[in-house]
Amino acid sequence: MRKIIKPEVAYWGNKEWLSIMKNILCARVCQGKAIPKLQLSLEQEYPDSQVILLNSARAGLVLSLQVFQRYKPEKREVLIPEFICDSVPSTIKDCGLIPVYVPVKADLNLDVALLDHFCNYNTLAVILPHMYAKPADIIQAEAIVKAKGVYLIDDAAQVAGIKLNGKALGSFGDVGILSFAQAKTIVTGVRASGGVLFINNKRLMPALSVMEKNLPESAGRVAALGHFLLAYKWQGFAKALDYYWQRLRVKFTGKAIGNFYFPVTRISNLDADIALAQFESLPTRIALSKRLIKHYQKKMKHVKDYSLVQCDTDDLYLTRLIIQSKKMVPEKLAAQLQQGGIITKFVYGSGSKAFDGSVTSGLLELPLQNLSFQQLDRVINTLKYHSQKES
Fold it and tell me: In the predicted model, is pLDDT for residue 232 greater than 90?
């Protein structure tokens, strides 16, 4: 029986697993030496930024938007790309603000050229993510929003370790954020498993530093790790086991599963230690991912009706690979690939609807990380087969 090929949510080696065992067995889940060690490492990588370690990137958004509101309480709108994780607009709404959607380009990044038109007297901030580690036009965005008197959040949640013109993404704008959640560049788990807020605008440091001092410790990380391993890392039978485990927890404790991202807390030592191991292996993982993407680019040129929307340059690193199916409905394509033992994922929002000519339609996520070239060829050949079958 052929091995199932699926998108990898966490590319872990021995050091990540040793970190988990060490922190749990030595009762260092909440506090320990990994937190200051990660702090120092990030301060060296981002020398022009003040580093705040948090339980999630979402927490960084909350703190940033709260401080922006203090300085400009009359402004209520936050500009974001139309193609984005649901957590971003929901966080904006939780802060009592209004998300405003800006069209994206073919590579799924916000069309920065439109910011001049969308910014108005009511615009508080722009959140500019680098989708799937593909750098957005952050330098151009900085110039536009600065002239408009609007705050800029460099959303590098998916792109730790990537630089633009020698400067690390996350260190542009007024603040920057990183996420350590599943399917990112650095993965420590899910459900508030860690993130970073970079303060790049020195005028914001006093207010955000006060907020940082009052943050509580992270809690419940062992249970969250168990959920991540069962439902995301291992999947299959383990995912079903996690489902029933969660239901039993609710039944016997009488407590519904709450919002794991509130309150905003500090990062746990467990998550910080896993993050350190992930940062250590990052250069190797980036190099491997680049080789896999180059292989995809070369072989997909001969496959009709599909395009790799992000791959417009060479020597490209991505955390996830998105295909645009212009003929077959992504839901049908996903089902056919699954029959061949290839698991895909639907993308944000309605992006996996039938292709309608727009850049945010017909999209499907293909497996990428931690694959062999033989597995890649199997994915590509299967796509080619279904393309010819549909013709």
Answer: no
Helix (H) or strand (E) holding 274: helix 269-300
Task: Say if residues 58 and 66 touch (Cβ distance below 8 Å).
Answer: no
- Taking the C-alpha atoms of residue 321 and residue 317, their distance in angstroms, rounded to an integer, is 10
207 lies in the same domain as 290: no
Cβ(70)–Cβ(96) under 8 Å?
no
Q: What is the pLDDT of residues 153-169, one digit of tens each?
A: 999 999 998 999 999 99
Q: For residue 166, give Cα distances in angstroms to 169, 171, 291.
A: 9, 11, 22
Distances from the Cα of 225 to the Cαs of 156, 180, 221, in angstroms?
Answer: 23, 13, 6
| Residue in this structure with the two tokens 């497996």, named with its chain if needed | 367
Other CB atoms within 10 A of residue 303 CB: 19
Distance CA 219, CA 271 (A): 11
Q: Please indicate, yes or no, if residue 249 is contained in any of the structural domains.
A: no
Structure tokens at 202: 């020195």
Angle at 89 between CA 87 and CA 90, to 5 degrees: 60
Q: Is residue 343 part of a domain?
A: yes
pLDDT per residue over 179-227, tens digit each? 999 989 999 999 899 999 999 999 999 999 999 999 999 988 998 999 9
Q: Determine the structural domain holding residue 56 and report its residue range.
A: 14-213
162 belongs to a structural domain: yes
Boundary residue ending a domain (213, 246, 262)? 213
Last residue of a domain, one of 169, 198, 213: 213
